[in-house]
Amino acid sequence: MDADTRDLAFVDLELTDADGVIRADLERTVSVTVDGPGVLQALGSANPVTEEGFTNGEHLTFGGRALAVVRPSGPGTITVTARCEDCEPVTVMLTAR
């Protein structure tokens, strides 16, 4: 992505089983952290009746899914880590140029 505060990266989060099938029947709180030259702009789940905010680092999944929006703050490698109860942490690296 561009190392520009006007660009965004959308990181899909999915609760899956061992075969990679989305577990739409699960709702779990997911927490997301961002390290490096970027910020977590928003975290949500598309649940139409939630009262949760979108600006903190935790959100309940909906249909086994959530979406993290990351904004770069400069060039470099941005590390996005998602954690959820009963799941191994998952990390993705984004490059802002």
Give structural attributes:
97 residues, mainly beta, 4-stranded antiparallel β-sheet, 3-stranded antiparallel β-sheet, 7 strands, 0% helix
Tell me the Rg in angstroms.
14 Å
Strand count: 7
Low-confidence stretches: none
- Note the beta-strand portion: over 45%
Provide mean pLDDT, rounded. Answer: 95
Query: What does the main sheet amount to?
Result: 4 strands, antiparallel
Give the overall shape, derived from the CA principal axes.
globular
Q: For the terminal residues, how far apart are their CA atoms?
A: 6 Å
Can you list the strand order of the major beta sheet? 4-2-6-7
Total of helices: 0
Write down the secondary-structure element order.
EEEEEEE
Q: Give the oligomeric state.
A: single chain
Structural class of the helix and strand makeup? mainly beta
Query: Helix proportion of residues, in percent?
Result: under 10%
Explain what this protein looks like in three dimensions.
The chain is an all-beta fold and 97 residues long. Strand 6 and strand 7 form a beta hairpin. Strands 4-2-6-7 form a four-stranded antiparallel sheet, with no helix packed on it. Strands 1-5-3 form a three-stranded antiparallel sheet, with no helix packed on it. The radius of gyration is 14 Å and the shape is globular.
